[in-house]
């Protein structure tokens, strides 16, 4: 297999041009920096921890907000740690949930150690085997144009895996106070009264 | 133990979940939870989400709260070990409310030694990551603690676990073979 040529932040920026009012959750580490690099928003919920749980947070949110699109952006290491979530999401099949894995085949934050996605695990194939109706493994520039429609329009659950270059990027650091991120997200979505007087 | 005329604790538990406005229930099955899970699955106002491992349900509950819904998490005591990092790293770090019902093993009359270490570790490990635990040892107590725990979880945004004692659920009796079962009247 040829080396990846796609750059994670450029890919995400192109795809997120179609975002509209979609809600976004990012997995810890690189995916959180990537989402923040597009500009901080109240309807981004960035994870700074909880490795392996990004997809399930997306599921709970997608069930609670069936009229809104929910997009989870995460990395290969984070998705591998929460692989069982694919069986749960595949069984429940929320039409409004999409997961985008930016797959550099590395545990980037801990020293770029290799992950299983470079040694045989195909996360898109795993999702398909779990019952996701639409999955994609994107390697080339030509397919990038389809990613936005997959993440924000196609009937889900969607698993879009993008093979990206293993590169050293500056951290784009969003707020890190989890309580603030949570309350800001809820106020933006539900309004101040509903968000603060449950 | 409830008799035929008593209401099973799961009826009160389900009623309290509804009164509190719980809309999602993430669970991993347990024999002790089977009636409550069934009540939740049959309830059209509750989305019951079967999870493959208990930490998934912690994430589900946080996502539900982000989206404006209250969620409850149901698991057996052995599943508590699977949730610790998710609770510490997500629930406690971002101060999410969390309401968990744990059906206990390894705690009262346990017949399987492999259940004992985790059963005994449930309360201290949950407490170590910021969860307040309410141990319930009678059917009436289960209902009262679930009602109080739900209010505390969602009105005061706390992480609460109600530990339903093995004495309430009934210990599993281990039978070696049919002949032995006849002799002991099991």
In which range does the helix fraction of chain B lie? 40-55%
Q: How many individual helices of chain A?
A: 9
Q: Please report the distance between the alpha carbons of the first and last residues of chain B.
A: 17 Å
The strand count of chain A comes to: 8
Give the overall shape of chain B, derived from the CA principal axes.
Answer: globular
Number of domains of chain B: 1
Globally, the shape of chain A reads: globular
Roughly what percent helix of chain A? 25-40%
**Main structural class of chain B:** alpha/beta
The major pleated sheet of chain B works out as: 6 strands, parallel
Sequence stretches where pLDDT stays below 50 over 5 or more residues of chain A: none
List strands and helices in order, with pairings.
The complex is a heterodimer of chains A (198) and B (186).
Chain A: H1 8-16, E1 23-26, H2 30-37, E2 44-46, H3 54-64, E3 70-75, H4 76-81, H5 84-92, E4 97-103, E5 106-107, E6 113-114, H6 123-129, E7 134-138, H7 144-152, E8 158-163, H8 178-190, H9 192-196
Parallel strand pairs in A: 1-2, 1-3, 3-4, 4-8, 7-8
Antiparallel strand pairs in A: 5-6
Helix pairs in contact in A: 1-7
Chain B: H1 9-19, E1 22-27, H2 34-42, E2 47-50, H3 54-66, E3 70-76, H4 77-92, E4 98-103, H5 116-128, E5 132-136, H6 139-155, E6 159-164, H7 166-169, H8 178-184
Parallel strand pairs in B: 1-2, 1-3, 3-4, 4-6, 5-6
Helix pairs in contact in B: 1-2, 1-6, 3-4, 4-5
Tags for this model:
heterodimer; A: 198 residues; alpha/beta; Rossmann fold; six-stranded parallel β-sheet; two-stranded antiparallel ribbon; 39% helix; B: 186 residues; 6 strands; 48% helix
Describe this structure in words.
- Chain A has 198 residues and is an alpha/beta fold.
- Chain A has one domain: Thiamin diphosphate (ThDP)-binding fold, Pyr/PP domains (Rossmann fold).
- Helix content of chain A is 39%, strand content 18%.
- Chain A has 9 helices and 8 strands.
- In chain A, the strands form 2 sheets. A 6-stranded parallel beta sheet of chain A has the order 2-1-3-4-8-7, with helices on both faces. Chain A has a two-stranded antiparallel ribbon with strand order 5-6.
- Chain B is globular.
- Chain B is an alpha/beta fold and 186 residues long.
- In chain B, strand 3 (70-76), helix 4 and strand 4 form a beta-alpha-beta unit.
- Chain B has 8 helices and 6 strands.
- Chain B has a 6-stranded parallel beta sheet with strand order 2-1-3-4-6-5, sandwiched between helices.
- Chain B has one domain: Rossmann fold (3-Layer(aba) Sandwich), CATH 3.40.50.970.
- Classes of the chains: A alpha/beta (198), B alpha/beta (186).
- The interface between A and B is large, with 40 and 37 residues.
């Amino acid at each position: 297999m040829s080396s990846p040529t796609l750059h994670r932040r450029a890919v995400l920026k192109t795809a997120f041009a179609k975002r509209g009012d979609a809600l976004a959750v990012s997995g810890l580490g690189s995916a959180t920096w990537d989402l923040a690099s597009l500009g901080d928003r109240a309807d981004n919920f960035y994870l700074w921890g909880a490795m392996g749980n990004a997809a399930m947070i997306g599921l709970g949110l997608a069930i609670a907000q069936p009229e809104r699109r929910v997009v989870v952006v995460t990395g290969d290491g984070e998705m591998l740690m929460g692989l069982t979530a694919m069986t749960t999401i595949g069984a429940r099949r929320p039409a409004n949930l999409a997961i985008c894995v930016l797959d550099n085949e590395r545990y980037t934050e801990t020293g770029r150690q290799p992950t299983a996605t470079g040694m045989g695990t195909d996360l898109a194939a795993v999702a398909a085997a779990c019952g996701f109706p639409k999955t994609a493994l994107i390697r080339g520039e030509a397919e990038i144009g389809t990613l936005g429609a997959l993440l924000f329009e196609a009937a889900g659950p969607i698993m879009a895996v993008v093979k990206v270059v293993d590169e050293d990027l500056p951290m784009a650091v969003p707020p890190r106070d989890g309580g603030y991120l949570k309350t800001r997200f809820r106020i933006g979505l539900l309004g101040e009264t509903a968000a603060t007087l449950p | 133990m409830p008799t035929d005329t008593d209401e099973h604790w799961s009826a009160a538990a389900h009623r309290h979940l509804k009164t509190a406005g719980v809309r999602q229930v993430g669970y991993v099955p347990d024999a002790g939870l089977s009636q409550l899970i069934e009540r939740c699955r049959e309830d059209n106002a509750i989305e019951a989400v079967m999870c493959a491992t208990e930490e998934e349900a912690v994430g589900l509950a946080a996502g539900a709260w982000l989206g404006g819904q209250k969620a409850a998490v149901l698991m057996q005591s052995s599943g508590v070990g699977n949730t610790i990092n998710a609770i510490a790293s997500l629930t406690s770090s971002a101060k999410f409310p969390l309401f968990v019902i744990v059906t206990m093993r390894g705690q009262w009359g346990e017949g399987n030694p492999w259940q004992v270490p985790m059963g005994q570790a449930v309360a201290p490990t949950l407490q170590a990551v910021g969860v307040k635990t309410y141990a319930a040892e009678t059917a009436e107590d289960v209902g009262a603690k679930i009602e109080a725990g739900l209010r505390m979880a969602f009105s005061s945004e706390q992480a609460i676990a109600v530990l339903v004692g093995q004495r309430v659920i009934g210990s599993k009796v281990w039978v070696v073979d049919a002949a032995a079962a006849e002799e002991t009247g099991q």
